[in-house]
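Private note to self, pasted from the team thread so I don't lose it. Backbone tokens:
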């Protein structure tokens, strides 16, 4: 099994009986292997329908969906779904099973021995930021954020090349949601899976995805590109209104000061007293400069000064 899968929607259409417009209308989309693709749009845009068609929870009327070149309708359903991790907002953990047993659900169906199941459960608990001792607890003993982490671990248990995530953080409080967003981005860098992630929140889409598909009402693809390209060049008025008027500030949040060509400190100028770490976003650095009514910040990695960020540097990002 490959580490990540390429997904292709080829002129896919889905209509529900009794509705005038399609839920998904002639959707063509190529998601490269290893990408984090976010489907975003207003209600009625067909985001969840598109997602659920990939693992055939919802059948489609015409077109073709391919995973690594294989038509999903020609794959045995059990084989298809065991190769896809699925994470939803409601999580759906089995209350009578321990956390470890929940995580091992698919490996158990695949015939893994108990020792291998236990080892995989513990490995994944640590990967998603929980303790190995949590394997013996029950879902009712966990917080909402912890349960969502267990749901993610369960989806990764059989090492699938593809993860489908349907608004997984929508029911969480803002602090827990931010922590899990950060954790998922780290996890994606580490495990390299293809992720298709559904959200109605454009800020979450910009923060999480390396590619964004914006769907308008009626399941029509409005624009598909990188977050920076969409913010810099909205395809039409609908996209511009949907992503909002503060596009420049949102673009500044896509880069960190450590990614910029910073000025190297030297004898020609003094190093500013105020500093930030390299993974500070340019947006947050600019906000701090405006708050302090100054033009420069030092950038420190531990005790080492790695450069100086100037307000003018923000213009280079744009």
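Design output:
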């Amino acid at each position: 099994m490959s580490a990540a899968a390429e997904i292709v929607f080829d002129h896919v259409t889905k209509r529900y009986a009794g509705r005038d417009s399609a839920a998904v209308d002639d959707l063509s989309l190529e998601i490269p292997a290893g990408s984090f693709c976010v489907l975003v749009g207003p209600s009625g845009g067909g985001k969840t329908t598109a997602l659920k068609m990939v693992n055939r929870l919802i059948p489609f009327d015409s077109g073709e969906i391919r995973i690594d070149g294989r038509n999903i309708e020609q794959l045995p359903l059990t084989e298809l779904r065991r190769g896809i991790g699925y994470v939803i907002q409601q999580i759906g953990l089995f209350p009578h099973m321990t956390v470890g047993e929940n995580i091992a659900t698919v490996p158990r169906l695949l015939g893994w021995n108990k020792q291998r199941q236990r080892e995989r459960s513990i490995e994944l608990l640590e990967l998603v930021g929980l303790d190995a001792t949590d394997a013996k607890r029950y879902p009712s003993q966990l917080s909402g954020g912890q349960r969502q982490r267990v749901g993610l671990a369960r989806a990764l248990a059989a090492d699938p090349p593809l993860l489908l995530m349907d608004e997984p953080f929508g029911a969480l409080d803002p602090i827990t949601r931010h922590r899990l967003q950060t954790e998922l981005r780290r996890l994606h860098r580490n495990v390299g899976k293809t992720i298709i992630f559904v959200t109605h929140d454009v800020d979450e889409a910009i923060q999480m995805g390396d590619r964004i598909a914006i769907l308008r009402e009626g399941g029509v693809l409005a624009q598909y590109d990188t977050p920076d390209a969409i913010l810099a060049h909205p395809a039409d008025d609908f996209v511009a209104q949907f992503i909002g008027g503060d596009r420049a500030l949102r673009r500044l949040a896509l880069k960190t000061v450590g990614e910029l060509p910073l000025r190297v400190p030297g004898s020609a100028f003094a190093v500013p007293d105020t500093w930030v770490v390299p993974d500070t976003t340019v947006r947050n650095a600019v906000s701090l400069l405006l708050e302090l009514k100054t033009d420069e910040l030092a950038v420190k990695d531990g005790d080492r000064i790695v450069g100086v960020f100037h307000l003018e540097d923000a213009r280079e990002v744009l």
